[in-house]
Design brief:
This protein is 24% helix and 27% strand. The chain is of the alpha/beta class.
């Protein structure tokens, strides 16, 4: 893979029919590849509604219908896919919010289970409890493939800056975030949070949201975006269904880190970040 990588984010409208969602995702992936994308990212819970009461009925074991679909799309389109996330059921019956990543040959190269579960209660605006249906993951997910060093996190994970910093310290240059901020938190925090993670860690951020769907019970904010290591938004969607593209110049990470050496200027004699190794 070259030092410049063309990426696409598929901001798709998710409905309550898994087959329709997979068909739509397939169409957008094919279109992305036809327009030169080498890496494509799908939204959080892209194959069904973001609804804690429905996670169980949409959940799949691995391998399953959706992961087979993603592997086939990767292979057929010769494209690297971070497959948003889906509800995954393990052998013990636990359900996770899980992202699967496949290389151009359709081989699974990464799997991230959402670490931080979205349990919030903003009176009069939104109440959601992922923990009512989901179990949390327990691993930092870093994917190294050719010239790419990706860190994958899912939505609420991005609000915990220690996680992004740990990934940066392990060499990550692209942070991929399938997410579904809502119309309460989205206008206030979406752009600020994504740009902050890029600025603090001097890396690219790819944030993939579902499109707005007025018929859905949970209203996604949309506004998928690509942010560069300087914190500049280089591509951004609105609220409707669309594909956004961006070219990532990977050496830009090293350039920014050299010009403004934040990671080197950390005062390890005063503070340190501890996290699990063997990533």
């Amino acid at each position: 893979m070259n030092k410049k990588v063309t990426v696409a984010i598929c901001q798709m409208k998710v409905v309550a029919d898994k087959d329709i969602n997979l068909q739509k995702a397939g169409e957008m992936i094919k279109k992305s590849a036809a327009q030169g994308a080498e890496l494509v990212v799908l939204p959080e819970i892209f194959n069904g509604p973001y609804d804690s009461q429905l996670f169980s009925s949409f959940a799949e074991t691995y391998p399953g219908k959706t992961t087979d679909f993603l592997a086939n799309c990767s292979r057929q389109n010769q494209i690297f896919i971070v497959g948003g996330s889906i509800a995954e059921k393990d052998d013990e019956g636990k359900i996770y919010n899980t992202s699967y990543t496949f290389d151009k040959e359709g081989e699974l190269v990464g799997k991230h289970r959402k670490i931080h579960l979205f349990d919030i209660d903003v009176p009069g605006k939104i109440k959601f409890q992922e923990s009512a249906a989901l179990s949390p993951g327990n691993s930092i997910t870093i994917i190294k493939y050719q010239d790419l060093q990706l860190g994958v996190m899912i939505c609420y994970d991005v609000r915990f800056p220690e996680l992004a910093r740990a990934m940066a310290l392990e060499g990550v240059t692209i942070l991929v975030i399938p997410a579904a901020f809502n119309t309460t938190t989205g206008p206030l925090h979406w752009e600020t949070t994504m740009r902050s993670r890029a600025i603090d860690n001097q890396l690219f951020v790819l944030a993939a949201s579902p499109a707005c769907n007025p018929q859905a019970g949970y209203q996604a904010w949309g506004h998928s975006m690509v942010v560069d290591p300087w914190g500049t938004i280089i591509s951004q969607a609105g609220t409707e269904e669309e594909i956004i593209f961006a070219e990532l110049n990977l050496p830009e990470v090293d350039r920014v880190r050299k010009e403004l050496p934040l990671l080197k200027h950390r005062r390890l004699d005063i503070y340190k970040l501890g996290y699990k190794t063997g990533l």
